[in-house]
Design brief:
Number of helices: 6
CATH superfamily: Response regulator
Number of strands: 4
Strand order of the largest sheet: 2-1-3-4
Strand content: 5-15%
Oligomer: single chain
CATH class: Alpha Beta
Shape: globular
Order of helices and strands: EHEHHEHEHH
Distance between the termini: 17 Å
Radius of gyration: 14 Å
Helix content: 40-55%
């Protein structure tokens, strides 16, 4: 099973959106037993909080199943427990490397790399208020992850 951890600043907007979108897409493509996603934060600011109402609204709009959850911060153990750890922006990547003590196994990536846009960030809708654009970019990244996985599986 490919285990993926999505990471953003507070774990209430972008990373849980990516978690639910990827798990939905994996099920839709018959890969629910092969791909699994969770999410976490680099900061401690939102620990214990559920997803942002803007994230819930977008997930409802696009009929992406989601459930009540609590934001959590990444730990050094996450590096060993996940195959791929995906950040939404450079700040997330920097924070992950600090907490993990580096990235010796090259597991840390930016999401939009999988959408063919390496180095591009998913803006934080907490600040922009634009959950629609965040969803569009996250969906493109998650579709790229599925495509990449299927390409490797078929080799």
């Amino acid at each position: 099973m490919l285990r993926i951890l999505f990471v953003c600043h507070g774990n209430i907007c972008r990373s849980p959106m990516a978690e639910f979108v990827l798990n939905y897409l994996a099920e839709k493509h018959g890969l629910g037993d092969e791909i699994y996603a969770e999410s976490a934060a680099v900061s401690r600011e939102e620990i214990g909080n559920d997803i942002h109402p803007g994230t819930a609204k977008i997930l409802k709009k696009y009929k992406i199943p989601y459930h009540k959850r609590s934001a959590r911060q990444i730990t050094p153990d996450d590096y060993d427990n996940f195959d791929l750890i995906i950040g939404m922006d450079r700040y997330n990547i920097s924070g992950m490397r600090r907490i993990f003590g580096g990235d010796p196994d090259k597991k840390v990536e930016m999401l939009l790399k999988f959408a063919g846009q390496p180095g591009r960030e998913v803006d934080d809708p907490w600040y922009t208020g634009d959950f629609e654009t965040a969803y569009y970019e996250i969906k493109k990244g998650c579709e790229g992850i599925i495509k990449d996985y299927l390409g490797r599986r078929c080799r």
